Amino acid sequence: MKNLTEELKALNIVKDIRGKGLMVGIECKVEIADLLYACRKQGLLVLPAGPNVIRLLPPFVVTDEQISQAVSVLASVLKSADEKQHLNV
């Protein structure tokens, strides 16, 4: 979770990151439907936990490499959304 927090904490679109064990919730300041779709297009399956929380719930046997890939995809999607939000303000 430390890598995820480091990657995402500077983004204005991210309101909060919380978790317990491997279950992580990323609360966003916008609705996440488009973000979920963008993640899926890049091969990352994430779930909603309400209209503005992205839930990560990887299997117990997830590898470090898979976690790094997931963080990379998620960071890319959220950075893109953050940039778009700044343009719309």
Secondary-structure map:
Layout: H1 2-8, E1 14-20, E2 23-28, H2 33-41, E3 47-48, E4 53-56, H3 64-88
Antiparallel strand pairs: 1-2, 2-4, 3-4
Order of helices and strands: HEEHEEH
Structural class: alpha+beta
The gyration radius over C-alpha positions equals: 12 Å
Number of DSSP E strands? 4
Largest sheet: 4 strands, antiparallel
Helical fraction: 40-55%
What is the averaged pLDDT score?
93
Strands of the widest sheet, in order across it, are: 1-2-4-3
Strand content: 15-25%
Give the overall silhouette.
globular
Low-confidence region ranges: none
At the first level of CATH, the class is Alpha Beta
Work out the helix count.
3
CATH architecture group name: Alpha-Beta Complex
CATH topology name, in short, is Aspartate Aminotransferase, domain 1
CATH homologous group name: Aspartate Aminotransferase, domain 1
Please indicate the count of domains: 1
**N-end to C-end Cα span:** 30 Å
Keywords:
89 residues; alpha+beta; Aspartate Aminotransferase, domain 1; globular
Detailed description of the structure:
It is a single chain. The chain has about 90 residues and is of the alpha+beta class. It has a single domain (about 1-89), classed as Alpha-Beta Complex (Aspartate Aminotransferase, domain 1), CATH 3.90.1150.10. About 45% of the residues lie in helices and about 20% in strands. It is built from three helices and four strands. The protein has helices at about 1-10, 35-40, 65-89, and strands spanning about 15-20, 25-30, 45-50, 55. Strands 1-2-4-3 form a four-stranded antiparallel beta sheet, with no helix packed on it. The longest helix has 25 residues, at about 65-89. It starts with a helix and ends with a helix.
